[in-house]
Amino acid sequence: MSDQQDPNRWRALAVCLAVGFMTLLDVSIVNVALPSIEGSLGAGSSEVQWIVAGYALAFGLVLVPAGRIGDLYSRRLMFVIGLAGFVLTSAGAGLVQSATALALVRLAQGITAGLVNPQVLAVIQQLFTGAERGRAFGAFGTTIGLSTAVGPLLGGAILAVFGEENGWRGVFLVNVPIGLVLLPLAWRWLPRAAKDRPAGRVHLDVVGLVLLAAATVFGMLPFVLTTGQGDSPARWFFLVPGALLLVAFVLWERRQGRQGREPVVDGELVRTPSFSVGALVGIAYFAGFTGIFLVVTLYLQSGLGFAPWQAGLVQTPFAVLSGLFAQIGGRQVARRGRGVVVVGLVVVAAGLAAADLVAASVQGTGGAVALSACLAVAGAGSGLVISPNQTLALADVPPRVAGVAGGVLQTGQRVGSAVGVAATTAIFFSTVVGAGLGGKARAAGSGDVPAAVQEVFGKALSHGLRVSLGLVLLALVLAVVDLRRRVGHQHGAHDASVAKHRVERAGVE
Q1: Long-range contacts of range 438-446, CB-CB < 8 Å, 24 or more positions apart?
Q2: Where are the chain's structural domains?
Q3: From CA 385, how far away is CA 285, in angstroms rounded?
Q4: Spatial CA neighbour of 23 closest among 98, 84, 101
Q5: Which of 6, 187, 350, 380 shows a CA-CA span of 20 to 30 A to 213?
Q6: Which H helix or E strand runs over 46?
Q7: Which residue from 422, 415, 149 is spatially nearest to 293, judged by alpha carbons?
Q8: Which CATH superfamily is domain 8-191+204-500 in?
Q9: Is 144 buried (19+), middle (13-18) or exposed (0-12) by CB count in 10 A?
Q10: Whole-number percent of the chain with pLDDT over 70
Q11: SS3 string of 331-382?
Q12: Residue 406: partners with Cβ closer than 8 Å, 6 or more residues away
């Protein structure tokens, strides 16, 4: 029986999406629990920073290595190992008694999440073809949109149920029973191994994996350590070893290719235009849209005095519309191609531009309602971007390297997210601090907030949204250039076909 006829493919997809949702949710859900963690564990600012940043760093660190190992050995085994580790580290995070221990467990939790996620894309690529693959990626796009946007809402709800003192523990412990249910299902339904896995002894490029992982860490570190509040300029020096390690990785990979050995990143991937453009569009778009939710949450909680669950409710329409339109995008991409992504990016840009105007001019509850409507528009566009772009990026990728391809795409997304969050929050806090509110940026959590403070936070949100809008427009430019390239290629192929037909007719006559 062929992979595309696997009777368990939709069940396997459901398991993959559920686990992917949990691991991606943990990127955003912790933000609303930080005040609870600070109060319960007495965490300092540096420890809080590492509780958030450590997960993102470790997540990005292992994506490509995990994808490569899954391609060579067993995607199911890597998935199950990662899921089991995620369950254990989630339990550990919910039971720790010190902030330092929580930061360390979060690093381990990020590693386990990074083991799982490349396998999700690889399994979709392996089990689905044609229109079914588009629908599967549409479901994955829904998962990404929901996990990113509903984190504040779910986190706020858990805190409301379990209380401010220990509610943060529930944010982590909720993963445990869900993961325990999914573990046996993953082992039962995920494909045992890829049919086109290399025969015989396989070569794992350990040096290349280490170089790429180290380059990823040093490259992401300055951005995940950026809070916009008294950050040390020295953090940017991490980019120097990051760049040197990246150069060393490229040189090493070329050496591997010349010696006839299998590199970490197949050269065929880099030379595939659909994959390269899809990766670049993904980096720019994730840089643009991921930072939105943190600055909106800060604005609503610190600027308007909303409770965490209320702040999450404002952002829920983004998640709902993103999920609905991801399904539409997944079905249309096979017929419309890159045009679906272009339309989606235009809609996202329109929603963010409207949100910018609202933030700068309307405050209070009315402003929050209007902001929610603008985010709903952006969410609809986002649904037309993420899953169609994933589908197009992987359309020409052989299933044998689907894991490493998925790892490269997701690493780009994580790097883009780190850059975007750093840029938007830095601009946000610089506006707040510049207005003399500095210490109130996190303290103005509940109750009535003076109109002057609301206005300052509104301007800060407006400035942050402009950064996000600029990054989304960059993604739009890349997508339009690719669309024109594709249209030109189609016209060229059509003209060549017509010319050939005319020559054949002339020969007959």
Answers
A1: 438/229, 440/302, 441/229, 441/298, 441/302, 442/35, 442/302, 443/302, 444/301, 444/302, 444/303, 444/305, 445/35, 445/301, 445/302, 445/305, 446/301, 446/305, 446/306, 446/307
A2: 8-191+204-500
A3: 8
A4: 84
A5: 187
A6: helix 45-72
A7: 149
A8: MFS general substrate transporter like domains (1.20.1250.20)
A9: buried
A10: 90
A11: HHHHHHCHHHHHHHHHHHHHHHHHHHHHHHHCCHHHHHHHHHHHHHHHHHHH
A12: 67, 117, 118, 119, 120, 121, 122, 125, 394
pLDDT digits (tens, 9 = 90+) for 382-406: 999 988 998 898 888 887 788 888 8
Q: Compute the distance between CA of residue 299 and CA of residue 172 in angstroms, rounded to an integer.
A: 25
- Between CA 404 and CA 388 the distance in angstroms is 19
Contact 307, 364 (CB under 8 A): no
> pLDDT tens-digit profile of 470-502?
999 999 999 998 888 877 665 444 444 444 444
Q: What is the largest CA-CA distance in the chain?
A: 90
**pLDDT by residue (tens digit) across 45-56?**
678 778 887 888
Identify whether the C-beta of residue 352 lies closer than 8 Å to the C-beta of residue 377.
Answer: no
The DSSP secondary structure of 155-191, one letter per residue, reads HHHHHHHH-TTTHHHHHHHTHHHHHHHHHHHHHHHS-
Measured from the Cβ of residue 44, the count of other Cβ atoms closer than 10 Å reads 11
Helix, strand, or coil (residue 287): helix
Token look-up 């790892």 returns 407
Burial 104-127 (b: 16+ CB within 10 A, else e): bbbbbbbbbbbbbbbbbbbbbbbb
Q: Is the pLDDT of residue 438 over 90?
A: no
Amino acid sitting at position 194: A
**Encoded tokens for 271:** 């030379």
Tell me the one-letter amino acid at 260.
G
**Model's pTM, two decimal places?**
0.81
Inter-residue contact 291 to 450 (CB < 8 Å): no
Could you identify the residue written with the tokens 């689907």?
Answer: 402
Structural element, H or E, at residue 305: none
